Amino acid sequence: MTRSVGRVRRVHFALAAILLVSAMRAAPAAAPFAVTELAPGLYAHRGHDDVATPANRGDIANVGFVVGTRCVAVIDTGGTAEEGRALRAAIRAVTPLPVCYVINTHMHPDHILGNAAFRDDHPQFVGSATLPEAEASHADSYLRVLRRELGAIADGSEIIAPTLLVDGTATLDLGGRQLTLRTWKTAHTNNDLTVYDEKSGTLWLADLLFVECIPVIDGSLVGWLADIAAIRQMKPRRVVPGHGPLDAPWPASLDAEEAYLAGLARDVRAAIRRGETMQQAIDTIGLDQRDKWRLFDIYHRRNVTAAYAELEWEQ
Amino acid sequence: MTTIRQAALAGWLAAGAAMAALAAHPAYAAQPDDDPSKVARWLDFKEGMFKGRPVDARGDAVIRLEAPARAADAAVVPISIAAQFPQTPSHYIRKIYLFIDENPEPYAGSFEFTPESGLASIETRVRVEDYTFMRAIAETNDGRLYSSVRFVKASGGCSAPAGKDDAAAEASAGSVRLTPEGQAVAGRPQLAQLMVRHPNRTGMAMNQITRNYATAYFIRKVTVSYADKPVMIADVNFSISENPNFRFYFVPRTSGELKAHVEDTKNRKFDGAVAVNPQPAAQQTSSTKL
To answer: Where is the composition biased (Low complexity) (chain B) (predicted)?
Structure first.
């Protein structure tokens, strides 16, 4: 008797094991929000290299999270509440620890509009001291455009302003893991903030570094070049860009970005000295860079406009 | 300026969306192949301003408007209005009106000239709110009207948010740079550039926290004179981009001072001046060649 019961138990166990393994194999087919563990406990998701469209559902920036022994810090939350929820699910798939910090590296909608998904975790929302005003003045425009471009995909997306402000540097402790946050001279925007994970030597540069996607000047060209010089001195083990491949080659990726921005500054200054108008500058400068950057046609002429408007006031 | 105010330029999503809108824009947006002579706003303005006087719609031989077909930045759209003949006491352009059909305030401003202007040309940068016809209407001293029209694709230049550091921008408002471009020659139209640091706010961007609109605050009048004679008078509004920039002409006959007087909507006044020493004209110039 005992022997046959034992055999039945073993068969049940075997069946259960087969079903469990099958279920595990089936899970990836349910299209999860893909995250890569760049270093132990440091995860990142690569956004699409594109402008926000219904096809990419507004998922166009690199976002991620860092796991300590006590809690988790999220770095940027994506372009919609929907994406924020997907990011949150990816965190839950990796750890049950609470989310104690949601860090927004700057005001742009592709980095902040997933914040609402974390509201019920009651984290500290962290950002530059200049972030609240920037968000407040742009909110109306961002949400209007989001709704127009993504329709119902945008549902639930809202701006949640930071509750913890950084001006200079600040340290967050996730339990045996320190993150050093730092604000910068106006560059990509006037509210740029980077995150350094000491444990892995990873510097999350966000939109201070664009790889393969054209850098977008929405702050100051001169300031950005100064910040790049400072970043170069930091010699991190690894960097994470705001757009483009997560394993950004260092320092080659910074060199490429600097070459584009410095070239723009040099050519625009020369055009101004020659008495060229803004439209002449827009029509002629930097066209040979086109093949080096994605979304060049969308953003380059705007960069030239921004550079000219900034540099014409130089002494 | 050390920071840049960018309006529709709010970043990846907004700018990209604005550009994506080129392919899929709202049903009622103006189209380049619309008939510009049938746009209601223009017809209302034309009636109100010119009261039935005919406007020659093919005015490119008198005045030529250039504007980008697709704006790189809707809040900073460079335009050029080029007079096609020199100012002379018997025949000159006395006023140019600038009209941007789809802007919240379509009448962007007017520019007055005299024979002393040399050339009634003006270059500046404007905000464009939506796909639109843009029109420069020249009035010559004999009272005739001529228009030059272009279509510009852009969106959000007026209603998108004001820039960063508003308080700082307002505090530093009023720096004036006035410069002749190149060596002046007596009796020849000389190009000059006027730059004024100013937010030139539209008052149409809402702050989500306060639910308030930052007040409109912009330059409304510019008077440029040479040797105490007016050469360019501009009546403008927030349709002009942040940090207004104007390029225009004047004719120096002898040494003198080029002066600019600027007033804004808070009645603040800013002035600039530069000495001009024209070198003598070459022999045999009785009429200026342009």
So the answer is: 273-284
